Amino acid sequence: MSANEVNYFGANPHVEGVFSSDRAQVKSINRDDCKIGGPYTHADVPRGAWVEIDLGAIAHNLRIIRKRIGMNRQLMAVVSADAYGHGAVRVAKVALENGADCLGVSTVEEAIELREADIEAPVLVLSQPPMRTIPQLLAFNVMPTVTTRDFALALGEEADLHGMVAKYHLAIDTGMNRIGVFYLDAVDFMESINFHRGLECAGVFTHFATADDVSDWEFQKQLSRFRDALRQLENARLKTGLVHCANSAAAMRFPESHFDMVRIGAAMYGITPAPSLRDRDDLRPAMSVKAQVAYVQEPQMGEGVSFGFSYRVAKPVQVAVLPLGYADGVRYQLSGRMKVLCHGNPCQQIGAICMDQMMIEIPLSYSTGAFAKGVEVGDEVVIVGRQGDLEISIDMMADELETPHHEMLCAFGQRLPRIYV
After folding, report:
1. Which residue of 27, 90, 110, 411 has the fewest CB atoms within a 10 Å radius of its CB?
2. Which domains does the chain show, CATH number per domain?
3. Residue 399: beta bridge partners?
4. Spatial contact of 254 and 240, defined as CB atoms under 8 Å apart
5. pLDDT in tens, 366-416
6. C-alpha–C-alpha distance, residues 174 and 220, integer Å
7. 176 exposure class (CB count in 10 Å sphere: 0-12, 13-18, 19+)
8. Closest CA to 134 of 89, 182, 199
9. What angle do CA 168, 173, 175 make, to 5 degrees?
């Protein structure tokens, strides 16, 4: 090694003052002090982009729904997909403190996460899980949905082997053709498993496919089929437990579908489940998505921005870079089609949205106003949420993409750190 080379795996005695051989003078950095992990505050969020969750809004929305459905029926808070990106454990605890009686999840893993957080309320997996999860269901006191005889009997056998009785909910297919026992076969199915002393039917339910549609013909057909199945089960003197079918849209539109319990997902998070319902109740969105400007430049006229140069500078502007992109839930298809809020004003997103970054246009032609001096690194930008008197909602993004708002919420919650307010 020559005198001018630096050994990066140790000190170079020939480069005095850069790599000191006196280790006692060097202050070590403790990795334990530098670990990244929540819960976060605005002061310690590890990147300049985050999701902000208003737990007070979730509590408010549940009180609104409780008022609508009354006190004489149960309310299930659906916390699937990490509570639609809001954080399952935190949301579940707030929900149970504000009117929810039980919780709904999509997977056994999601249910176990709640149990390991010391949540003892009833938890229902809203589809039949794999046979291999039966020991976990029993060990963590989680109710599965049942749709096949083989699974039901295996569940009962395992429960009986341990001196237990396994509670389950029966899914009835009334026309969505996704999961469930066909509604005309419900009695035969129940009679084929009802003998087992290790099983107890704690509920019967169905899923609506069109509760959010303006036309209610298909909805009413499904509801009629569900009632037929319930009537047949009652005539056969088969226990049904809690009867439930209403999701957020049905809970808000069709009181006749409330039965013993309603399942609330979208409405709990402040998302109106149908455009026709947006002025029906005072629901408050719980999720905001925010970022800080990471870099600012002023490209020359005619210069392109981002991949493909779909945007070229045609006037004096600043280009502000935000440290989030499609890996964080900002859909690539919104490139050049969305706005954000900065200094209380709408700003156009420009160029292709990248995996980890996106660019916005800050006009410099204003002699006065919010952008008289442009923007600076660290300025806060709202991608979803309110700033000043303006708001950009998940509904606006979902409508632009013609996609469900659930998808947008889940995507934002996958990688961005969460701050609870």
Report:
1. 27
2. 55-277 (3.20.20.10), 287-420 (2.40.37.10)
3. none
4. no
5. 544 666 678 999 999 999 999 999 999 998 898 899 888 888 999 998 899
6. 11
7. middle
8. 199
9. 160
